[in-house]
Amino acid sequence: MRRMLLLLLSVVVVLCFSVSAFAAKPGNGVNPGGFPAGEHYTLDIPGKKGGFTCPGQKHDEFNNPIYGTSLFAPENGTGI
């Protein structure tokens, strides 16, 4: 019984170390977290206290609106 337990433990340890060998390496088109590399959209959703006023719309040199990547949400309440 002890020999079987030792064998099982050895297999588990070998599997744990071998899994890290197959992890994504930089430059393979996959980030370390496992998600594909490439264009993405970043969205920040900060919570704001009551009485906060959103900043006004910004424009570039050709008067085109610049859309940001932040969505302000109240910390308390329904947000309506």
Measure the end-to-end span. 65 Å
Helix content: 25-40%
Put simply, the count of helices is 1
Could you list the spans in which at least 5 consecutive residues all have pLDDT below 50? none
The strands making up the biggest β-sheet line up spatially as: 1-4
**What class, by secondary structure content?**
alpha+beta
Structural account:
This protein has a two-stranded parallel ribbon with strand order 1-4. It has a two-stranded antiparallel sheet with strand order 2-3. Helices cover 25% and strands 10% of the residues. The longest helix is centred in the first third of the chain and has 20 residues, at 2-21. The termini are far apart. The chain is of the alpha+beta class and 80 residues long.
List the defining traits of the structure above.
80 residues, alpha+beta, two-stranded parallel ribbon, two-stranded antiparallel ribbon, 1 helix, 25% helix, 10% strand
Report a brief summary of the structure:
The protein has 80 residues and is α+β, with helices and mostly antiparallel strands. It contains 1 helix and 4 strands, in the order αββββ. The N and C termini lie far apart (65 Å).
Topology:
Layout: H1 2-21, E1 47-48, E2 58-59, E3 65-66, E4 73-74
Parallel strand pairs: 1-4
Antiparallel strand pairs: 2-3
